[in-house]
Amino acid sequence: MKVIAKNIQTDTSPATTRHRIIVRQYPDTAGWSEWMPWECPVTCGGGLGSRTRICYDPDLCRGPQEQTGECNPEPCPTSLEPQQQAVVTEIQNYLLATHQAFQLRTGDPVILPCKGSLTDYVNYYAPHAKVSWLRNGEALQPDNKRVTLMENQDLEIKQSSSKDNGIFLCILNLNPDTPITTSLSAVTVQNTKPDLVITVGNSLSLSCHGALLTKVYPNAVIRRWFHNSTFYKEFNDPNVDEISIDVSEYTHSGLWMCVVAESPGTYMREWPTNVVVVQVVPPSEVFKKLIEVKKKLMPLLMPLLPFVAAGVVVFFVFCCCCCVCCRRRRKKRRRNRFMDDDW
């Protein structure tokens, strides 16, 4: 608070001369205008800005005329540089025009391309971009033995196995917020031994591994299943990525393959995405004996079922009666104890 002597009045009476001072108190903002808007050198991300105010009365103005501080602290939206955007567009056009599908047998080697014919282009305009690989949506870590990441970021599988069935994606990270798929490879590996052994009569469920493929190629919505090279069933819904059989039979043994295809009117491309060798086996000897015993006992037990049911009901009623009697006895004992205590 500032104290200002604004008025001095003089008393000129004959006896004495007196001066009366009228003291007034003014707030610190007195004499100043409102602060002007901040002037900031940046529009986002935070910067050192300043603002000013105007003094209308120098006798009242107190404090600085200019104030500095942080301005526009909001984070800036992520955006690609024009050159990076051109790289993204080029990769997207290249990816939509490519078709990579590898049908292998167990032990076959294969090299899955990452940048393909765009290798020189990407290395020139995005030399520091990092590369990662996904297999069926999960991060793939090369072990440098069976699976190796080559210098040009291609993925080398020296000995393929049935666990390599599915979709491989090469992801190029231009910056932490801009991952882009540069290649998609569909891989199927036919095993020489059964991949799945089930007992006849049990349920059977097989995955197509087509979800990632549909995300990259939106028109790839058809799932076709083949059994021993014969068409078995087709789904036109991309959300149906499995085939299920409630009760398996011996005829379900053999080679099952899922093929993802584009809808009519487009490129009509197809990608085999999974191959499974299924073997349906008879039940074990113990299980067979149990079934035989069950078959023999069922005719004998069927006439006894009404009596068994009646026995269960009688046993239940008997248990209820016992519970009621026990409760009554407990209450009677408690009453006797209270009466003994009163005496």
Automatic annotation (TrEMBL):
Gene3D superfamilies assigned to the protein according to its UniProt record, in alphabetical order? Immunoglobulins (2.60.40.10), Thrombospondin type-1 (TSP1) repeat (2.20.100.10)
Q: Does the keyword Transmembrane helix apply?
A: yes
Q: Which domain of life is it from?
A: Eukaryota
Kindly give the SUPFAM superfamilies that the UniProt entry links to this protein: Immunoglobulin, TSP-1 type 1 repeat
Domain called Ig-like: residue spans: 82-185
User: Which segments cross the bilayer?
Assistant: 304-326
Which UniProt keywords are present, listed alphabetically?
A: Membrane, Transmembrane, Transmembrane helix
Q: Answer whether the UniProt record assigns the keyword Ribosomal protein to this protein.
A: no
Protein name (Swiss-Prot/TrEMBL): Ig-like domain-containing protein
